[in-house]
Amino acid sequence: MALTAGAGERSAGVAVAPAVGVVAAARVAAPDVAIGIDADGVRQYRLALARESRRYKRYPERALLAGIGGTAEVRVEHETGAAPVARLARSSGDESLDAAAVSMLRQAAPHTSLPESLRGRSFAVSLPVVFDVSAE
Fold first, then answer.
1. How far apart are CA 133 and CA 78, in angstroms?
2. How far is CA 76 from its chain centroid?
3. pTM of the model
């Protein structure tokens, strides 16, 4: 499973696309950034979240053995004064991959530091999580 937080970084089979340099993950315009939110702070947070997510990466065994891969997009929402919430924004086409992607970011989000510019602000980021059997 490989989780990538920066261009070219890989661990074993699940990848969170880098926050910079990949079109799918580099979106810093709506819907990821609310009006008045610091785009650099959002980029920093997205990178930190991808790095922290590595600790929670799990390629579902059933999917791995069946040769199932795909990309799930997970949206992490921060509301002022509330714990971050991770939700499936786009399915990979496989329930076990979707659940693993959401779980990974749900666990990582509370442990990811917010840049000063985002503290006390409501915002959301989306991260694609790539499950790649060939990287196993």
1. 32
2. 8
3. 0.76
- The total number of structural domains in the chain stands at 1
Determine, yes or no, domain membership for 118.
yes
Task: Give the mean model confidence (pLDDT) for residues 46-51.
Answer: 96
Number of Cβ atoms within 10 Å of the Cβ of 96 = 18
Strand partners, 129: 16, 72
**Interval 15-36 mean pLDDT:** 42
Q: In what order do the strands lie in the sheet with 14-16?
A: 14-16, 123-131, 70-78, 85-90
Mean pLDDT score across all residues of the chain: 80
- 59 lies in some domain: yes
Q: Which residue matches tokens 């390629």?
A: 59
pLDDT of residue 14: 57
Of the listed ranges 4-18, 46-60, 81-95, the least confidently predicted one is 4-18
Domain containing 89 equals 14-135
CATH of the domain at 106: 3.30.1150
Q: Is residue 26 part of a domain?
A: yes
40 belongs to a structural domain: yes
